[in-house]
């Protein structure tokens, strides 16, 4: 663990963790190449003794579509209540505000919080600003944000444009913080600085750790647990309530005060290590708030271990064991029915990396076959570097291997061949763009808009019910597949290797 809060710029995932966005093979091979054993691979660089192992990476000649770090800052810092996010960027970088506003409002409603619109402002950089600089626009936008919304904090998202022209965002933030009397937090998230959007999560959390979290809390709340999440429904309160604990949800939908009091908590957990790794490690390193180092709460094995570790850290072992026993007994009858109904069905998971590991575990609890998965990136190690958080190895050790395991940053042109390799009955997905292609192949998708839908023991049953629902509509997708044409040439559709172009351009770095 080595998080450096002395600088305003977060270290990218590929520098810090060895993150990759291109790989194809068996999940067990990827776990062996990365995991928590260090070293190098021929032609791919090595370890510097501190950072994660470097995994051989397939690098394609072009990118058809993805998102960037700034957009993740938009959906994190932009979703903090009583705060404003100023995007120091051309107006086009703010197009995500439309969909995130809808998600934000729905999330507030689901949590029983007052529904409102996002508070986001763009500095609307133009060609003239690219020549002469945009600091004056930034300063005016920050003052406008303060006058309009009277926020408790203002976040600043940088962009590729500001990175190119070199605007001194930190100096502007520093003197305006003194002028306005509230935190003005620069978040360095230029899209070109990192090849995967998850660095944007870290950029937001870095700024929060530096300037929002209370440095010297007057007291510790031994019943409070930080839950790092997105917009999901409140499933953690009833689960942790069984242990006599209460929840502090961060970062999305949190207030500035919720973020400030994270240093007062007894522990920190998350629903996905991709999202929670940096903030949880930083809270432990800088503020002494223990990060729960256990498998994620998916399936029986993960949820059991997760609850027991929370109980150990918070000294609630007896209550945890009683709750675990009750829940096992409660869900088993319906689980047995679902397994019978889903016998012989084949699923495919296409989400963020650590979240995919958890979803595959839940599918296998339901007796669903999972021969393949596409994860949008892969972190060989998380910030704690604790092997108990090795979610990929946990999946393999408890639920078996995944023979067609792919790392790729949401490239549609590759998805066709991936689905042809395993021919699933349905896919599970959270990000837009890939589900329509699957539908054109006659494969329905379960869009997990609520990321907490599969958490814990009830989450196993929830996913089983969702699979039954989507399979009931499979005829629609089959009819659609018989009446549409894919936008690819016959030559490409006949290829069995989705990474053919990458292997052709970099044969020495191919991961078999």
UniProtKB/TrEMBL annotation:
Query: What InterPro entries does UniProt report for this protein, alphabetically?
Result: Nase/OxRdtase_comp1 (IPR000510), NifE-like (IPR049939)
Q: List the SUPFAM superfamilies.
A: Helical backbone' metal receptor (SSF53807)
Q: Which domain of life is it from?
A: Bacteria
CDD domains listed in its UniProt record: Nitrogenase_VnfE_like
Span of domain Nitrogenase/oxidoreductase component: 78-471
- A Pfam family annotated for this UniProt entry: Oxidored_nitro
One GO molecular function term of this record is:
oxidoreductase activity
Native source organism of the sequence = Pleomorphomonas carboxyditropha
**What is the name of the protein in this document?**
Nitrogenase
């Amino acid at each position: 663990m080595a998080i450096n809060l002395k600088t305003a710029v977060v270290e990218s995932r590929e520098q810090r963790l060895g993150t990759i966005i291109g790989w194809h093979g068996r999940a067990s091979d990827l776990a062996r190449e990365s995991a928590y054993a260090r070293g190098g691979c021929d032609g791919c660089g090595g370890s510097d003794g501190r950072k994660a192992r470097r995994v051989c990476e397939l690098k394609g000649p072009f990118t058809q579509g993805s998102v960037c770090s700034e957009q993740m800052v938009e959906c994190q810092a932009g979703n903090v209540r009583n705060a404003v996010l100023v995007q120091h960027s051309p107006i086009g970088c703010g197009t995500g505000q439309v969909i995130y506003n809808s998600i934000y409002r729905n999330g507030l409603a689901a949590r029983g919080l007052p529904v409102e619109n996002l508070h986001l402002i763009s500095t609307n950089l133009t060609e003239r600003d690219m020549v002469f600089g945009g600091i004056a626009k930034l300063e005016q936008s920050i003052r406008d944000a303060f006058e309009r919304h009277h926020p408790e904090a203002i976040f600043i998202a940088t962009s590729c444009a500001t990175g190119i022209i070199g605007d001194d965002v930190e100096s502007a933030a520093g003197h305006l913080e003194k002028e306005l009397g509230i935190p003005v937090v620069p978040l360095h998230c230029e899209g070109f600085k990192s090849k995967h959007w998850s660095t944007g999560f870290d950029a937001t959390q870095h700024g929060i750790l530096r300037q929002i979290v209370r440095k010297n809390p007057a007291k510790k709340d031994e019943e409070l647990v930080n839950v790092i999440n997105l917009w999901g429904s409140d499933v953690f309160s009833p689960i942790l309530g069984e242990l006599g604990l209460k929840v502090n949800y961060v970062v999305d939908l949190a207030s500035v005060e919720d973020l400030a009091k994270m240093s007062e908590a007894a522990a920190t957990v998350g629903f996905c290590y991709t999202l929670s790794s940096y903030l949880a490690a930083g809270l432990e390193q800088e503020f002494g708030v223990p990060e729960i180092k256990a498998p994620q709460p998916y399936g029986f094995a993960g949820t059991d271990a997760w609850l027991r570790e929370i109980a150990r850290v918070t000294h609630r072992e007896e209550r945890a064991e009683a709750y675990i026993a009750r829940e096992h007994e409660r869900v088993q009858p319906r689980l047995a029915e679902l397994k019978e109904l889903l016998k012989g069905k084949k699923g495919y998971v296409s989400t963020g990396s650590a979240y995919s590991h958890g979803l595959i575990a839940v599918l296998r609890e339901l007796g669903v076959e999972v021969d393949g998965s596409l994860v949008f990136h892969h972190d060989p190690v998380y910030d704690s570097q604790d092997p108990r958080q090795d979610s990929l190895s946990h999946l393999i050790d408890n639920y078996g291997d995944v023979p067609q395991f792919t790392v790729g940053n949401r490239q549609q042109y590759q998805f066709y061949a991936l689905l042809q390799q395993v021919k699933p009955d349905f896919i599970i997905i959270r990000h837009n763009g890939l589900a329509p292609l699957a539908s054109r192949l006659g494969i329905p998708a379960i869009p997990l808009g609520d990321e907490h839908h599969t958490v814990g023991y009830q989450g196993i049953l929830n996913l089983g019910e969702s699979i039954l629902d989507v399979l009931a509509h499979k005829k629609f997708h089959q009819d659609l597949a018989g009446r549409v044409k894919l936008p690819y040439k016959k030559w490409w559709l006949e290829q069995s290797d989705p990474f053919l172009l990458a292997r052709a351009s970099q044969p020495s770095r191919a991961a078999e």
